[in-house]
Amino acid sequence: MKTLLLTGFEPFLGHPINPTEQIVKELDGKETGDYQIKGKLLPVDFAEAQGQFVSYMNDLQHDAVISLGLAAGRECITPERVAINIRDGEPDNKGNAHQDALIEENGPAAYFSTLPIRAMVEELNAAGLPAKISNTAGTYLCNNIMYSMLHELESRNMTVPAGFIHVPASHDLVVKGSRAMPSWSQADLTKAIEIMIGVLAGP
Amino acid sequence: MKTLLLTGFEPFLGHPINPTEQIVKELDGKETGDYQIKGKLLPVDFAEAQGQFVSYMNDLQHDAVISLGLAAGRECITPERVAINIRDGEPDNKGNAHQDALIEENGPAAYFSTLPIRAMVEELNAAGLPAKISNTAGTYLCNNIMYSMLHELESRNMTVPAGFIHVPASHDLVVKGSRAMPSWSQADLTKAIEIMIGVLAGP
Amino acid sequence: MKTLLLTGFEPFLGHPINPTEQIVKELDGKETGDYQIKGKLLPVDFAEAQGQFVSYMNDLQHDAVISLGLAAGRECITPERVAINIRDGEPDNKGNAHQDALIEENGPAAYFSTLPIRAMVEELNAAGLPAKISNTAGTYLCNNIMYSMLHELESRNMTVPAGFIHVPASHDLVVKGSRAMPSWSQADLTKAIEIMIGVLAGP
Amino acid sequence: MKTLLLTGFEPFLGHPINPTEQIVKELDGKETGDYQIKGKLLPVDFAEAQGQFVSYMNDLQHDAVISLGLAAGRECITPERVAINIRDGEPDNKGNAHQDALIEENGPAAYFSTLPIRAMVEELNAAGLPAKISNTAGTYLCNNIMYSMLHELESRNMTVPAGFIHVPASHDLVVKGSRAMPSWSQADLTKAIEIMIGVLAGP
Questions:
Q1: C-alpha A163, offset from chain centre
Q2: How confident is the model over B89-113, as pLDDT tens digits?
Q3: Is B172 in Cβ contact with A75 (below 8 Å)?
Q4: Which of A6, B21, B36, D47 has the fewest CB atoms lying closer than 10 Å?
């Protein structure tokens, strides 16, 4: 059976919880379609997350890689189309911030996701769940992990499907964090990711 | 056993479905706390909805009255605090529109909801569902029904708990309507309304 | 010549400036149509603002009263339709907060603005400035001042035009406050208020 | 004296006017810093705009190239950081739409703007005008023009400063189009672009 590396993030920027953490815990070990899911958590720390992520990729020689991140304020599930070679924005959980910095000094400006993002959106819609392709993963750690993942695979000439999916806030996050924003139940979020993995495994 | 009149609306303004219709159908006949729920549907028609609503109130002599409406674009469940004596805005499903018109020529400027809206919000939050009090029900048919309901009860010197609750779009509505906005699963919406009725029935 | 009392607020809730303060300073003493403008500033303090406002009304026996407030996040000029008998929400600048409290123990649920709000919106649009009627002034100090103003005039059987206008953020506020939101130039804001006063004075 | 090619677009997607058209007309022929501005208008037509744009670039051998586009819904001036090799989204004014299509079959995933976008944002803020860097120019014609511009310059090994700036709606557009969104006065928009060109010309 093929394996899929699925990562989520710990809480960040003052959010009390991160729904991607729970998705990854719930799906770890499950079999969906052709894949057994290996769930892993990443720290919100520019200095550590990238190295830890690459070591997860190395250890397990996965047949597919999907990273998940919280996009607080988005209304629906948004697979990302592209990662750009930039670190910029708010400080990470260690207090380190970057401005207009390159992720890879000699890397290209961007990499496209190699996930079937259009089919994933269509499958979610068919299942009654709102989704659309996003054209920016931002310039924070989510974009960094997506860029590093695709750069690493490119460097090794590996063509396994790989990419990043942003999810909206969970109801829990809104209630505990007392910040108004669109939210889904945790169950809906997890179900959506399972459906998307199902597309990956598809015919 | 006490009875509770629960109304929803048919689809309107180009939305292909109205999640309040399904909530009302699912809860019709159910017993929650002290109340048996009588679910009824209203047309999006200024000329008919109000009369039909009052006749529902008359027929059944309910011990509580809650009307539901869709607030496309809102992120969470919002019990309304106040209804104002105004009809204004987009045309209804019959094509009739009003501008700055009074609902009741000699009615007061506004009525406050007599539902325990603060306790309802707290109970939803305790159940992990985002909710907050809204201070405007708009000036369209939702506000009209809420105002008429409270005016009717006032006219009869009746003090049964009565008010209006706006709900966000359902996932289904977003997918079928192809308009991006915050959405909840239909199941979450129905559960939220049940929890709120439970508060009403409370000690 | 008739006089018009025009009030603005000092900065609040962490905003470094309040564009209504500058509007009031710029228009103080000016003559627009039939009115000479008397500009006054109010503190963001539930305990003091109301009393101070009523004393301004008393002192000068104005022929019209308009209060201005900042609605951070709104996109355009919004004359308010209605003020409700509620104090609720964030703490004021003295740290005092209220929840679901009445402004006037025996006052009605709401008062409608007696300004020509529809004509004001139309005149702004004709001048190329976006505007629309708002149906909620919130439950914070802006609503409080509007309610108190209209309650005071009602108590004295006075029928001078009176109401509240919310304005969007100014460019300056966004730049200095580092919070992203819609904004207008200060000059556009001041011009809009002058145009609205011109409507008041109209034939 | 150096020359700068400045392009705007005609109206599109049902917007009655396009504020970038007016900016370009107002600035055409003006001298700002080291540059004389050559203003040109582009059609909202995937098939024609790109070729026309490249011919403008060829004809005049400009020392800098800036394209402007309307980002309806954005709150402030947003110089774009990156253009991606994708055509996707709504139909253009000729009714042609694309989905997940490449702009250049053998082009890289993305190009970064070569304008001093950080300095431009800082200069606007210093002048009291809200601005921030945007990390997505979308996948419609604006992104297409930005990508084509940078691809063309790269192909010729030319290093003139080049990029794309999105502007918010103008007040006029909101009033004439009857769609609520953040807006600036046309004068503020034109002033902002002039300030940004001034940065380009800088020391």
A1: 7
A2: 989 888 999 999 999 999 999 999 9
A3: no
A4: D47
Domains of chain D are 2-200 (3.40.630.20)
| Burial letters C49-88, b for 16+ CB under 10 A, else e | bbebbeebbeeeebbbbbbbbbbbebbbbbbbbbbbbbbb
pLDDT, tens only, B3-28: 999 999 998 778 888 999 999 999 99
Residues within 8 A of C (CB atoms), B 126-155 only: 133, 135-136, 138-139
Beta A31-32 vs A35-42: how paired, if at all? antiparallel
Among candidates D76, D141, D65, D134, which has minimal Cα distance to D103? D141
**Cβ(B94)–Cβ(B62) under 8 Å?**
no
Region of poorest pLDDT, from A76-90, C7-21, C117-131, D68-82: C7-21
Which ipTM did the prediction report?
Answer: 0.93
**Cα pseudo-dihedral A23, B20, B71, A195, rounded to 10:** 20
Is the predicted pLDDT of residue B203 greater than 60, yes or no? no
Catalytic residue among A80, A123, A151, A152: A80
pLDDT surpassing 90 at residue C182: yes
pLDDT band at B168 (very low <50, low <70, confident <90, very high): very high
A114 near A164, Cβ under 8 Å? no
Mean pLDDT of chain D: 93
Nearest Cα to Cα of residue C41 among C61, C60, C19, C73: C19
The verdict on whether A142 is a catalytic residue reads: yes
How much is the pLDDT for A135?
98
Under the banding of pLDDT at 50, 70 and 90, the label for residue D202 is low
Rounded to whole angstroms, the Cα distance separating B18 from B70 reads: 7
How far, in Å, CA of D38 to CA of D59, rounded?
A: 11
Q: Which of C21, C26, C142, C151 is catalytic?
A: C142
Q: Which residues of D touch C184 (CB under 8 A)?
A: 183-185
B contact chains, 3+ CB pairs < 8 A: A, C
User: What is the rounded CA–CA span in Å between residue D168 and residue D182?
Assistant: 7
Confirm whether C166 is a catalytic residue. yes
Dump strand ranges (E) for chain A.
2-9, 31-32, 35-42, 64-70, 78-79, 82-84, 110-112, 162-167, 169-170, 183-184
pLDDT tens track for A27-80: 999 999 889 999 999 998 888 998 899 889 887 678 999 999 999 999 999 999
What is the SS3 assignment for D119-152? HHHHHHHHCCCCECCECCCCCCHHHHHHHHHHHH
- Chain D residues lying within 8 Å of C172, measured CB to CB: 128
pLDDT of residue B202: 59
Nearest to A81 by CA among A10, A141, A138: A138
Contacts of D167 (CB under 8 A, 6+ apart): D19, D20, D23, D68, D69, D70, D71, D74, D77, D78, D184, D189, D192, D193
Q: What is the pLDDT of residue A203?
A: 52
Structural tokens at position B173: 């509505």
How many contacts does A have with B, using Cβ atoms within 8 A?
54
- Residues of chain B contacting A125 with CB distance shorter than 8 Å: 175
In a 3-state reduction of DSSP, which class is residue D73?
Answer: coil
Lowest mean pLDDT among A168-172, B12-16, D25-29, D39-43: B12-16
Please tell me the distance from the alpha carbon of residue A125 to that of residue A131, in angstroms, as a whole number. Answer: 7
Query: For residue B101, what are the β-bridge partners?
Result: B87
Nearest to B188 by CA among B169, B201, B203, B202: B169
* C42 closest CA partner among C15, C85, C12, C63: C12
Q: Which of A90, A112, A120 to mutate to test the interface with D (most CBs of D within 10 A)?
A: A112
**C81 neighbourhood in chain B, CB within 8 Å:** 84, 86
